[in-house]
């Protein structure tokens, strides 16, 4: 597990590449939970990228990451992009992992990205708070336990419109009971 700051130089490098190629993206996952809520350690950085834009310049993307300090597998990336599945890139300078998702888990999430300053010199698009809660709820439904606390903390910060959108989406995906279960859990264990 790493503190969030370890990822900033890596995110800056991949963001520059994606911007040069004209690929829309945003940061999501644990690092964005840290931005919105409570500091915690994380094991990777998660980026959602526009699948059509990545597919359209896949050869340029692969060429750039091969010539950079990335440990990647071309065949795995090609297959992942064609199927809308996650692929990984390991930064050999910092020895940290990026999970790249060439698809929107929440429809339209890239349109709702917010641009924030993670550092004085690193401005980056991040998932909106509502979309982050929804994606974490989906990950919880697939077995992710670390997202449970993130959802509870994020839900304390959402505004009424975000709350309504989250609950509507949860109802559409039959995740209302799971959302209520997670929100009813304590953050601390009573002795």
Comma- or semicolon-separated keywords:
191 residues; alpha+beta; Beta Polymerase, domain 2; 2 domains
Would you give an account of this structure?
The chain has 191 residues and is an alpha+beta fold. The protein folds into two domains: 4-127, Beta Polymerase, domain 2 (2-Layer Sandwich), CATH 3.30.460; 130-184, no CATH class. It contains nine helices and seven strands, in the order H-E-H-E-H-H-E-H-E-E-E-E-H-H-H-H. The strands form two sheets. A five-stranded mixed beta sheet has the order 1-2-5-4-3. It starts with 7 loop residues before the first helix and ends in a 7-residue tail after the last helix.
In short:
The protein is an alpha+beta fold and 191 residues long. The chain has 9 helices and 7 strands, in the order H-E-H-E-H-H-E-H-E-E-E-E-H-H-H-H.
**How many angstroms separate the termini?**
27 Å
Radius of gyration, taken over Cα atoms and rounded to an integer in Å: 17 Å
Mean pLDDT: 91
CATH topology of the largest domain: Beta Polymerase, domain 2
State the helicity in percent bands.
40-55%
How would the blueprint of this fold be written?
Blueprint: H1 8-21, E1 25-28, H2 30-36, E2 44-49, H3 51-56, H4 58-67, E3 70-71, H5 74-83, E4 87-91, E5 96-101, E6 114-119, E7 122-126, H6 129-141, H7 146-155, H8 160-172, H9 176-184
């Amino acid at each position: 597990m790493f503190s969030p700051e370890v990822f900033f130089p890596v995110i800056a490098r991949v963001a520059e590449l994606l911007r040069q190629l004209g690929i829309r993206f945003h940061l999501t996952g644990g690092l964005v939970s840290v931005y919105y809520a409570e500091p915690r350690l994380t094991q990777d950085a998660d980026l959602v990228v526009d699948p059509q834009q990545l597919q359209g310049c896949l050869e340029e993307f692969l060429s750039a990451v091969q010539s950079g300090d990335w440990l990647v597998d071309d065949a795995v990336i090609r297959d992942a992009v064609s199927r809308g599945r996650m692929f990984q890139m390991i930064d050999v300078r910092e020895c940290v992992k990026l999970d790249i998702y060439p698809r929107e888990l929440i429809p339209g999430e890239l349109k709702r990205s917010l641009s924030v300053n993670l550092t004085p010199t690193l401005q980056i698009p991040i998932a909106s708070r509502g979309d982050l809660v929804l994606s974490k709820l989906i990950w919880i439904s697939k077995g992710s336990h670390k997202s449970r606390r993130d959802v509870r903390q994020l839900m304390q910060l959402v505004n009424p419109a975000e709350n309504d959108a989250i609950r509507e989406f949860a109802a559409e995906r039959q995740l209302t009971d799971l959302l209520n279960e997670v929100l009813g859990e304590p953050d601390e264990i009573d002795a």
